[in-house]
Structure formats: structure tokens, C-alpha cells
């Protein structure tokens, strides 16, 4: 008997550890209808956040790409009086910088203040295009944790209601199971909120770089017009 006792004792912790293991699916399913609905809403928010993030990321990257010789070619055309060639070059270059430059070229001959104002107005429109739907990421980042916490509160209310309905005779195991299952909604909400928050801030940084690029090229264009011929 002594020979077989030691292997049995070694297997006991493994059996206990297997009994305590829970999958994410089990936690969601065991949370009840309310938990499933809230987790579903959070998954939808996560899908929306990821779609907006990658769609805007690709759009911003495309907007930041511009030929380094672009402004040199514009300067050459403008200095030689080839305004139509300069406009054609801008039209063939799909970027915010090119559109701002085209707006400035179309105002050549007017006071510099008018040209500067036209470029600023066009720049505001371009920034608006770059920031399209980005605010939704900020909304998801703030709303997801609150939605998850709402699910936890609902689960806690249900768990304590069951304990009150049983006259205080509810098993602690069942009560604890209901509580930690309900708290999975908070975890899910925090995960979605963190992902959306990081994505939002990353897009803000990328957008700021494009805005600085537009400002630098606008200043360069205005300086070019100020140069003596």
C-alpha cells in the first residue's frame, strides 16, 4: 500500500488545479442573459474601434506621403509663370499638402493675406477629413469601462437578490461564482477601453505630424511668393 500512496498524493494537486480552471467562454455563458448582452455590446464596440483605427491609420499614412521634390517643382513652375503646370502637378498629387498648395496657386495675384487665409481655410477642411470618426474611438475608450462596470453591478444585484430570496441560506460557493462571473464584464470593458484609448492617442500623434507637415509646406509656399523675382 505504501508504494501506491505517494503517486496518488502527487496527482491530487493536479486534479484540484484542473477543477479550478475556467475558460473565458464559461465565464461569459455562466453570467446570465444580462452578462451575455453586455459582453456582446462590448465586442461590437471593439470591432467598431478596430475598424476605425485601421481605416484612419491607412488614410493618415497615405496623406503623409509626398514626393520630396514636390515643392521644388512647384517653385520652378511658379517662378517661370507656369501656373497651369503647377496646378496640374497639384491635381496629380493626392495629398493634403498638394491641395493646400493648389489653393494658394489659385489665389496668386491677390494680396498675401488673402492667399494665407485661403490656405488656412483649406487646411482646416483637410484636418477635419483626417480626424473623421476619430472621436468615436475616444467615446468607446470612455464608454466601454462604464458599460462593463454596469454589467458587474447588475450581476452583483442579482447575486445578492438570490441570497436575500433564500433567507440567507445561499451557499457561499454559488454566491462567489455569481460575483466573479459578473466581474468579467468589467474586465472586458477595461480591455476594450484600453485598446480604444491607445488607438485614439496613436491616431492623434499621427494626425499632428501630418498637420505640421501641412503648416511647414504652407509657410514654404508663402515664403516663395515673398521672394523677389
Automatic annotation (TrEMBL):
Stretches that traverse the bilayer: 27-54, 136-159, 179-200
InterPro entries the UniProt entry points to: ExbB/TolQ_transport (IPR050790), MotA_ExbB_proton_chnl (IPR002898)
Organism from which the protein derives: Imtechella halotolerans K1
Protein name in UniProt: Putative biopolymer transport protein
Any single GO BP term: protein import
Domain MotA/TolQ/ExbB proton channel residues, every copy: 93-215
Subcellular location: Cell membrane; Membrane
Entry annotated with the keyword tRNA-binding: no
Coiled-coil zones: none
UniProt keyword annotations, A-Z: Cell membrane, Membrane, Protein transport, Transmembrane, Transmembrane helix, Transport
Mode of membrane association: Multi-pass membrane protein
Family: Belongs to the exbB/tolQ family.
Gene Ontology CC terms: plasma membrane
